[in-house]
């Protein structure tokens, strides 16, 4: 509260969260710290903003869903209104619970990112991660290309939007499709190997979310600002072309 009083912001963007290092498996053995950051911290900041009449944007996650019979790969993506159905990791369990509570706040905008990708191969970028794995699964997922979508977050916050948005590029893209584009544009000598979800589960402590989010709500809202949210394959292709032009390897 003291910091909000000192700065007197009109908007707060909360990007804080505990995902664990080197990955979300860490959260399984550090649950108190995860709660402190992902639940208590997030709610506290949202509540403080509410008391000060400040708009609060929370960069949340879409890793609260998993493919099922009603939402298979290639089928209908999950809507903002669909209840979470994935709790296979403690990280995801905390994020779905805190989102449910945050929807109570009239000052809160919730943006669900998935597998965010930067143009600079940042260590936390999804592409950087999977390019360093010995083996990867090959499952279509929603992705968030930050170059395209971060400006959308500023527009939504500035406009005072509240509620929940699936904050991903339209469509879903598989790991192999991502790495094939990476190889095409950025690292021509890059090679990778696949393994199955069953094989992957043997080396992980916690499960992983795989799903497609329906981003129609975001696409429709961005049209009000004259912005087209690019389909994920197109967005990735352009992302890797920007990397190549910048000399990223």
Report on this structure:
- The chain starts with a helix and ends with a helix.
- By secondary structure, the protein is of the alpha/beta class.
- The chain has a four-stranded parallel β-sheet, sandwiched between helices.
- The chain contains nine helices and four strands; from the N terminus they run αβαβαβααβαααα.
- α2 runs parallel beside α3 and α6 packs parallel to α9 (232-245).
- The longest helix is centred in the first third of the chain and has 21 residues, at 31-51.
- The radius of gyration is 18 Å and the shape is globular.
- The relative contact order is 0.16.
In short:
The protein is 39% helix and 8% strand. By secondary structure, the chain is an alpha/beta fold.
Low-confidence stretches: none
Which percent bin holds the helix content? 25-40%
Indicate the structural class: alpha/beta
Q: Separation of termini? A: 43 Å
How many beta-strand elements? 4
Indicate the overall shape: globular
Give the topology string: H per helix, E per strand: HEHEHEHHEHHHH
Neighbour order of strands in the largest sheet: 1-2-3-4
Radius of gyration using CA atoms only = 18 Å
Count of separate DSSP helical elements: 9
User: Which band does the percent of strand residues land in?
Assistant: 5-15%
Mean pLDDT: 94
Largest sheet: 4 strands, parallel
Main attributes?
9 helices, four-stranded parallel beta sheet, globular, 249 residues
């Amino acid at each position: 509260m003291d910091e909000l009083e000192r700065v007197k912001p009109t908007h707060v963007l909360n990007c804080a969260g505990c995902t664990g290092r080197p990955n979300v498996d860490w959260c399984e053995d550090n649950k108190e710290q995860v709660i402190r950051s992902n639940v208590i911290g997030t709610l506290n900041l949202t509540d403080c903003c509410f008391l000060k009449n400040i708009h609060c944007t929370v960069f949340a996650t879409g890793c609260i869903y998993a493919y099922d019979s009603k939402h298979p790969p290639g089928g209908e993506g999950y809507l903002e209104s669909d209840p979470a159905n994935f709790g296979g990791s403690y990280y995801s369990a905390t994020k779905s619970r805190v989102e449910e509570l945050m929807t109570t706040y009239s000052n809160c905008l919730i943006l669900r990112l998935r597998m965010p990708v930067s143009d600079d191969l940042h260590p936390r970028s999804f592409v950087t991660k999977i390019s360093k794995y010995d083996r990867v699964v090959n499952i279509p997922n929603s992705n968030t290309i930050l170059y395209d979508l971060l400006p959308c977050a500023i527009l939504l916050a500035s406009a005072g939007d509240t509620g929940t948005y699936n904050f991903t590029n339209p469509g879903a893209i598989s790991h192999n499709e991502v790495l094939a584009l990476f190889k095409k544009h950025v690292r021509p000598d890059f090679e990778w190997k696949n393994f199955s979800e069953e094989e992957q589960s043997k080396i992980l402590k916690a499960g992983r979310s795989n799903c497609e989010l329906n981003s129609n709500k975001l696409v429709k809202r961005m049209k009000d600002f004259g912005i087209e949210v690019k389909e994920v394959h197109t967005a990735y292709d352009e992302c890797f072309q920007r990397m190549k032009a910048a000399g990223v390897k």
